[in-house]
## 1
Amino acid sequence: MKTRIKLFLGCLAAAALATSVFSCKGKSTSTDNNADTVATAKPVGPKFNPDSAYAFTAAQCAFGPRVMNSEAHEKCGQWIAGKFRQYGCTVQEQKADLKGYDGTTLKSTNIIAQFNPEAQQRVLVCAHWDSRPWADNDPDSANHRKPVMAANDGASGVAVMLEIARQLQADSTLNIGVDFVCFDAEDWGLPQWETGYQDTGDTWALGAHYYAENFPTAVKPMFGILLDMVGGEGAQFYREGMSKQFAPDVVSRVWSAAQAAGFGSYFPESDGGMVTDDHVPVNQKAGIPTIDIIPYYPDCQASSFGPVWHTVNDTMEHIDKTTLQAVGQTVIQVLFS
Ligand SMILES: [Zn+2]
């Protein structure tokens, strides 16, 4: 991602103005210090393993930045598809030549992994798997044309999906089906340094647009959950505006599930602005009510998506296992409720 229309500009603390870009770590998000959350928590379903999700994030980064048309991208895509197959999913690869804002032909592959492919009641869980080619929000302009490792902005969402798929294979009590969809070509959107083009917002989420326009599976999921940047340190997931507009019931369901899973402190009952992301075409073109779990850092000067967003510092060092766990256990709670 992307573009955030800031509806709620957080007040920048005076201290934050004076300190470095890494100062905006967000609020304390320990589950242990929230007695109310713990007291009312009623977790259901298998236990999400944060170490495993962390390892899945690192494994993607080990290929290098998964920039469109690169060898690292190709190899990582094969690895992701293989892992979903290993966990018992039926995998199809939806390939397309898509056109980037600059006319580049992008060899795009949406990876669609179905758990319980025969089930008629299905839930969509999705994330993008490509890396941004340009660190155009980096504080150092010398880095603006370098690729983003995308440990958080890409790999984290896929890692959470892989760990859920692994848990579902081991558990075998879930009767509904899950469509895990890894969207490609999300992050080739118009760079900030590009002045010859107008940003109309439609240069992003190209794989998700293609999926929604060329719906590849027989049964349409009842609703969907998009995971974007779900492993950052200090992350909190405020209710995103497009999600509230298109899928208010799903927002309620997911935020309640976070409470019940014991991770309510990561999901404040507050609004975080509107984001142009993969869930928009899925709502508008595929008609699947879909929400976006995406962080909001109200006090972060570098970006409301957090300090390392679209910088060369979006690396494993800034991935927090407990953030991955908060999101993964919440999604499991939704699936098993
Ligand atoms: Zn991005």
## 2
Amino acid sequence: MLKGRVVKVLSDRFMVDVGNESVQVKSRKKLKRETLPLPGDFVLLEQAGDEYVLYKIEERKNRLIRPAVSNADKVIITVAPLPETDFLTVDKLIIGAHKAGVSTVICVNKTDITPQGFTESVEAQYAGVADAIVAVCAERKETAALEKLLTGGFSCFAGQSAVGKTSLINAVCGLDREVGDLSEKTLKGKNTTTSAELIKISDGTYIADTPGFAALDLFDIKPEELSLYYDEYVALSSGCKYHMCTHVSEPNCAVRAAVESGRLNGLRYERYLMLCEELKKRNLHRKSWRKAYDD
Ligand SMILES: Nc1nc2c(ncn2[C@@H]2O[C@H](COP(=O)(O)OP(=O)(O)OP(=O)(O)O)[C@@H](O)[C@H]2O)c(=O)[nH]1
Ligand SMILES: [Mg+2]
Ligand SMILES: [Zn+2]
């Protein structure tokens, strides 16, 4: 029996790091979807003739849905001035990490082209929300602040296409993985990286390059529970009049008061209200759909 860690999953096979080398394991058709490995999984392999087959996936410490990896310690949410940052996506990534119990780093890339105030605005929105915020430049190989955070454990990059996830990994690891330009027409990324892959930096230190995305779906969260994924709101909620305050329209809400006085970031709060609305609409839609189905 051979123990290893899944570094990449393709449609018909996956690659497993077994210490000093990487072995290829063919996926069997009979493998059920829930037994398919994810990048990051610890697995046991069995030798069958001259090939290895999957014997067991070890219990997962956690599992992120987007990007789809397991056993991550940190998610490095990368943003840049170009392509334009969709902060709602950043919020959703933070919620996803929170749900999985993974810590978060906001990494502002492309400081060579950031307009005045961009990094400061990111800091204002996510100070006290993300576990760390760093500003770096892959182009000029100014990545020391990020490198410090990558030591030990498994850090998974995430973010929109073309923010420079692969470029940062290239700069940090001295690699030459394929990077892609922005489309001139849409100023959006071209989804250059197509599958998640763990890169081993040293024993116990892995980073993962992942495909970028345009927009993130919502998750299975009840609208009244959304605020539980906002640490900065949870910290103030004991000051709200209602025990189960959702900080939307309840009277004497400590969170709204903090937003009004500027203690909490207003942009993030506005997006929180939007997400709440989205979740409520989706819940209603689901209920009516279910009712129609039951009738
Ligand atoms: N000016 C500037 N451009 C950068 C920097 N880092 C990356 N880029 C450029 O941004 C573009 C996208 O870089 P990638 O590394 O492919 O982005 P990605 O996030 O991996 O994109 P996907 O694989 O599509 O998700 C490329 O044209 C890079 O040269 C930087 O620090 N400054
Ligand atoms: Mg990439
Ligand atoms: Zn409240």
